[in-house]
């Protein structure tokens, strides 16, 4: 299995695991896409609270087993979309990096300036280079 497809698969699996725990954006955390992970997490939590406030009579008496389908299904869709987005992001990023000309950072995969001893994107030192 190629590294690109393995990374995308792991991102999807981590996203699915996070979704089963009710945590949107877990796949994005694996990909180190922090803003996108936070956006998905806030969207998931916000969707849950909005749906509960609209469709549940007394939110203090709600349990996971007693959630109506009008809350469970849309929340599950948000979790699924988060997982699909993590998979798509990993595949698109890998394709973009494969088409990039010149050297790339072994840590983040972005193009690097050959005159620097570190990656200007992730600030990791590049092996075998003197500043």
TrEMBL record:
Residues 101-127 form the DUF7575 domain. Keywords: Membrane, Transmembrane, Transmembrane helix. The chain crosses the membrane at residues 12-31, 38-56, 62-87. It holds the Pfam family DUF7575. InterPro entries: DUF7575. It comes from the Archaea. This is Zinc ribbon domain-containing protein. It comes from Salinirubrum litoreum.
């Amino acid at each position: 299995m190629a590294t690109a497809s393995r990374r995308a698969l792991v991102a999807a699996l981590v996203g699915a695991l996070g979704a089963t725990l009710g945590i949107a954006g877990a796949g994005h955390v694996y990909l180190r896409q922090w803003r996108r992970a936070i956006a998905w997490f806030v969207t998931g939590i916000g969707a849950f609270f909005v749906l509960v406030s609209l469709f549940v009579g007394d939110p203090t008496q709600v349990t996971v087993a007693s959630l109506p389908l009008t809350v469970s299904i849309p929340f599950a869709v948000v979790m699924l979309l988060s997982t699909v987005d993590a998979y798509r992001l990993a595949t698109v990023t890998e394709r973009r990096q494969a088409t990039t000309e010149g050297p790339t950072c072994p840590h983040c995969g972005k193009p690097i300036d050959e005159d620097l001893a570190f990656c200007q994107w992730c600030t990791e030192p590049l092996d075998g280079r003197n500043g």
